[in-house]
UniProtKB/TrEMBL annotation:
One of its GO terms (cellular component) is endoplasmic reticulum membrane. It comes from Iris pallida (Sweet iris). Its EC number is 4.1.99.5. GO terms for biological process: lipid biosynthetic process. Residues 96-232 form the Fatty acid hydroxylase domain. This is aldehyde oxygenase (deformylating).
Length: 258
């Protein structure tokens, strides 16, 4: 217990709060024209969904996420009220690693299948792709069914298979949330630690949101391993845009642009 609030409740609600706080920081940072991966004009022209539609869409998804999370913690709870002791830091780090691999593996194959299956793409996954120019709080703008299958079930599997405690999951799910928001921030900011530690980042995922990159860079949110192993990796370079700012441009060698 922390301040009388159970780890189950914290594991459920902290990641939701973290989503809005972290993307709120990006909103407060403003437009930062010189670090944007796309111009504002491009965002206006290409993004079909309005900002208010996106906020409502994310909130709906988070309601589902909260319900499943509460259900999961109720099921795994033995009802004794005794808080599971935390293992050593090394074990926790190992559980984090397993959790990341599980989420990545689940999301890669589900995400890729949603692109292969035309029905699923048209009716479910295309909603996420309606933001051709991604921005932070649009990260979880998904069809509720996609949120459930990709994010929530992926999260449940990572929790169960890694054996992490509900307390660890507060940090793990918050970290996964921050990473997902960061991958959609639409900016290439100097000093961003995620860019240092992960080759899966805002530019990498930006490629996937473009029409030409739609069949590439499915990996999310942590590593790029599955794209590399299964040949769906689209290499890119960051180039200066003539209007200012940077742009992720694909390096088009031996790639079928479909
Ligand atoms: Zn996609
Ligand atoms: Zn995305």
């Amino acid at each position: 217990m922390a301040f009388g609030i159970s780890d189950d409740l914290l594991g459920t609600f902290v990641p939701v709060a973290v989503y809005w706080i972290y993307s709120g920081i990006y909103v407060m940072l403003g437009d930062l024209e010189n670090y944007r991966l796309h111009t504002k004009a491009e965002e206006k022209a290409k993004n079909v969904a309005s900002k208010s539609t996106v906020v409502k869409g994310v909130l709906v998804q988070q309601v589902f996420q909260i319900a499943i999370s509460l259900l999961l913690f109720t099921v795994v709870n033995d009802g004794s009220g005794v808080v599971q002791p935390q293992p050593s830091l090394l074990v926790i780090l190992g559980q984090f690693m397993i959790g990341m691999v599980v989420i990545d593996t689940w999301q890669y194959f589900m995400h890729r299948y949603m692109h292969i299956n035309k029905f699923l793409y048209k009716h479910i996954h295309s909603k996420h792709h309606s933001l051709v120019v991604p921005y932070a709080f649009g990260a979880l703008y998904n069809h509720p069914l996609e949120g459930l299958i990709l994010d929530t079930i992926g999260g449940v599997l990572s929790f169960l298979l890694s054996g992490m405690t509900p307390r660890t999951s507060i940090f793990f799910f918050s970290f996964a949330t921050i990473k997902t928001v960061d991958d959609h921030c639409g900016l290439w900011l100097p000093g961003n630690l995620f860019h240092l530690f992960f080759s899966n980042n805002s530019a990498y995922h930006d490629i996937h949101h473009q029409l030409y990159g739609n069949k590439y860079n499915f990996s999310q949110p942590f590593f790029v391993a599955w794209d590399r192993i299964l040949g769906t990796y689209m290499p890119y370079s960051l180039e200066k845009r003539k209007e200012g700012g940077l742009e992720a441009r694909p390096i088009k060698k031996d790639l079928k642009m479909n």
